[in-house]
# Entry
Amino acid sequence: MIKKLALIVLAVGFSIPVLSGSSHAADTIKIGFNAPLTGFAASDGKSASEGAKLAVEQVNAAGGINGKLLELVIYDDQAKPAQAIPIANKLIGQDKVVIGVSGSYSGPTRSAAGVFQEAGIPYIAAYAIHPDITRAGNYVFRTSFLGQIQGRGGAKLVGDILEKKNVVIITLQNDFGKSLAAGFKSKAADFGIKIINEYEYSIKDRQFGSIVAKVKADNPDAIYASGYYFTAGPLVSQLRAAGVTVPIIGQEGYDSQKFIEIAGPASEGIIITTSLDRDSDVPETRNFIDAFEKRAGFKVDMVAASAHTAIMVAADALKRAGSTDPEALRKAIAATNLKASTGTISFNALGEVMKSVQNQVVKDGNWHRHSVIDDPALLAPPDK
Amino acid sequence: MLHLELLIQGLIYGSMYAVIAVGLTLVYGLLRILHVAHAGLFALGAYLGLLITNATGSLVLGMLSSAALVGVGGMLIYRLCYQPILNRPPHVALIASIGLFIAMEEIFRLIFGPYGLTYQNPPLQSQIALGEIHLRAAELGMVIAAVVLLGILSYLSQSTRIGIAWRATVDDSDMAKSFGIDTIKVRYLNFFIGSGLAAVAGIFISLLSNLVEPTMGGVPAYKALAIIVLGGLGNVKGTLIASLLLGVVEAFGTIYIGSILDRDAIAFAFLIVVLMIRPQGLFAGR
Amino acid sequence: MGIYEISLATVVGINIILALGLNMISGFCGQISLGHAAFYGVGAYTCALLAKSGTPFAAAIGAGMLAAGIVGLVVGLASLRVRHDFLAITTMGGGFLFLGIVRQQEILGGELGISGIPSSGFGKIGYLVMVLALAALTTVFSLWIKRSWMGFAFDAVADDEDTARVMTVDVSAYKLAAFAMGTAMAGVAGGLYTYFARFLMPDDFGFITSITVLSMVAVGGIGSVFGVIVATVILTLMPEFFRFISDYKLLVYGALLFAVMRFAPEGLAGLAGRVFARTKRKARLEDEAT
# Structure
C-alpha cells in the first residue's frame, strides 16, 4: 500500500514542474518552430533550424519588426506526429507564439497544423509535402512545392527539356517519394514519356544492388529517382558503378552538398528539380547563400533555404499587418508577394505557393543552374 | 542473366548479414541474451574504420584497428552491462541493450554530427569483372571476408582447444567449469570476436555506400535478431545459411514484390513463414 | 489548465492504456511482445476508417478494440508454437509485416496516412476526462485480473510453463486470453489516439513505438500495475521535462533505460518495494533496540 502511495507521489511530483510552464517577459515577438532535432531525421532538423535561426538574426539585425525583436522558439518533434501535437499546444498555449513554422516532415506538420488551425494561429510549412497539410484550414500555408507538383515538373524536365522517352522510376517508399512519383506519372504521357518500370525502396536502404541490376537490364533512356541525400547518394553512385550512364533526375531531397560528397564523381551531371538556384543573381537568394555558409559553416541545402523562406514570409507578414492579431496576420500572409531565397512567394486560395521550378545540375562538384520551369498551368497547385 | 545477377546481389547482402549476425548468435548461444547493442558496435566499427582510414590513408590499418578497438568495446559491454544481470529474466538484458544502443546512436550524432561522414578517397571502388558479371571490389571483398572469417571461426571452434572450450561452455557452462575451462575467458573471447566481426561488416558496408551515419545500426539491430532466430538461436552454421537465404529472398523480393511489401516486411514475412513450418528455426540447437 | 497541459495529459492517459495492455501480455503472462504497436495501429486505423464514414464515437472505438483483440487472438495462436525469445522476435516481425502491408494499401491511406478524422465532439477538456476515465477503468480491470484466479494462472504460466501445464492449468487458453485482452486494450488506446490526433501515419505504429511502450512496462516493473503507470507518466513527460537540454534528451532516455535495467531490474515497483522494506526493517530494529 505504502509502495503504491510512494509511486503515486513520485508521478505527481514529476508532473508538477513539467506542467507548470514558464512564460517569459514579452518584448519580443515569438515565432514557434518545430523540427526533428533528434531521431532519424536529425540532419534535416539541423539544416532547418540553422536556416530559421539565420532568418531571425537577419530580421533582428535590420531592426526587427516595427521596433520589436523576433524570438524563435524551437522544439524537437523527432519527426513524430504524436510528439508534434503537445509541442503545437505548448507553442500556442504557453509560449504564446503569434505564428508557427514547421521545419519538420509531413507527419508532424499535418498533426500540428490541425492544432494551429483550431486555435486560429497561422502556421507555415517550410518543406513538408503532404497535400492535406494546407487542407487543415485557412490558417495553414506552405512555402514549398507539393510532392505532386514537383513530380509534374520532373516529367516536363525529363520528357520536354531533356527529351528522354523511356524512363524507369525508382521511388522512395514514403509520402515524399510516392507523391513525386504520382505527379510524374500523371504528366508523363503529356511529354511523350513511357514508363518502363517502377521500383520502390525503403528510407532505411543504402544498398541497392538488386534494383541496380534490374534497371541495367531494363536499359532506359533516363531514370527518375526520388530520395534524400543519404539514399540518393549511394543509389546514384551504385548505378554509375554498375555502368548505368543515362541521365538520373532527382528532386529537392538530393539538394545538399552531402549528396555530392557521398556520390563523389558519380554525382556529376545529376539533375534535380528544386527551388534554390545556386547561380542566382537575385539578391535575396545570393545573400542568403553567402550568409548561411558564413554562419553555419557548411554549404546551404534545400531544407535550410526552405526554413529561411518560411521565417521571412512570417516576418514580412508581421511587418505588413502591423499587429500580432491572428486574423490580421492570416490575411497578411495570404496576401504575400515576397522575393525570398527559394523564389517569389505568393499563395493561392488554399495556401499553396505558386512559383517556378529551379532545375539544378552538379558540375565540377557543385550545384549549378540547369534550367527553369515556368509553366503556371503545369505547376498550378490545387486550390481546395 | 538478370536472375544470376540478382542471385549474386542476394549473396552479397547475405554475406553482410552473416558477418553481423554471427556475433549476435555467438552471444545468444553463450548467454541467452539478445544483444541489440551489437548494432551499436557495428556502427562504431564503421566510424572508427572511416576515421582511421581517412587519417592514415590505409584501409587495412583502419579495418584492423577498428576491429580490435570494437572488440575491446564489446568485451567492456559484456563486463559492465551484461555480466551483472545474467541471472535476471530475459527482458532485462534486452531492454538494457536497447537503452545502450539508443545511447550509442545519440553519442555518434552528438560527436560526429547528424549528416554522416564520407571517405576522402573511397577505397575498393574499382570494377572487377567475373565473366559477364561486374562487381565493385568492395562487394567482392565483403563476400571474401565473410567466407574467410567465418571459415576461420568454424575451424577454430572445431579444431582448437579454445574452440572446443567455447563449444563446451555453450553446451553446459557448469560442466565446462568443472572441467577446468575458464568460462569467463571464453565469454570475453566470444564478445571480442563477435564485435570485431561486426566492425568489419560495418566498414565494408560503409565502403559500399560511402556513408557512415549515426543511425546506420538501426536496421541491423532488428534484422540480425530475425536472422539468428531463422538460423536457430546459437547455431553459427545456421546463421550463415539463414543470412544468405535472407539476402537472396530480399534481392528477388524487392524487385518482384517490392510494390506490395517493403524490404523489412519481406524479410519478416519470410521469417514468420519459416517459423510456422519449423518453429525451432532452420537448424535447431547447435 | 492550458491547452498544452491538456494535450500532454491526454497523451499520458492514452499511453497508460497502451502500456497496461502490454503489461497484461508481457507482465502477467511472461510473453514478451515486441510488436505491441501493431495492435495499437489496428485499433487506430479501424477506428479512423469508421469515424470517417460517420460511425459514432463509442462504436468506432469499440470496433477498434474488437479488431485489435481478434488480431491479438491470431497472433496469440502463433505464440503457442514458439517461446520466449522467439516470441519476442516473431511479434517484432508481425509488427513490421503489419506496417509493410498498411503502407501499401491505398484504402488505409498508404504512405500518406489518413487525415480529416472528425472530432470526438467532447471538446478538449471533455476528451481528456474521458481518456482518464478509460485509463482508470483499464487500471481497475488490470488489478482485478491480477488478483483473481486468472491472475494466479497467468503468474504460473509466466513463472514456468511446463509446471503450469502439469498442474492442469490450460496454458494455451490463458496465453490466448492474455494476448487478446492486452491487444484489445491497445486497440482502445489506438482509437483514442485517432480522435486525439485526427491524423494517422504508418510511422506512428512502428517498431520504435513498440520499444517505447515496452520500456514503459520494463521501467515500471513488469507485472506491476502502479509501477507501469508511474513509469508511463515519467517516460511520456520526460521529453517535455528535458526541453532545456533537448539535444541530449534521447541520450538521457537511452541511458535511463539502461540504468534502470542494470541497477534496478525490477523497475520502479521493485525499487519502491526495496526502499520500503528497508525502512520497515530499520524501524523494527530500532524498536527492538529500545
Chain C has a mean pLDDT of 87. DSSP finds twelve helices and two strands in chain C. The CA atoms of residues 14 and 192 of chain C lie 7 Å apart.
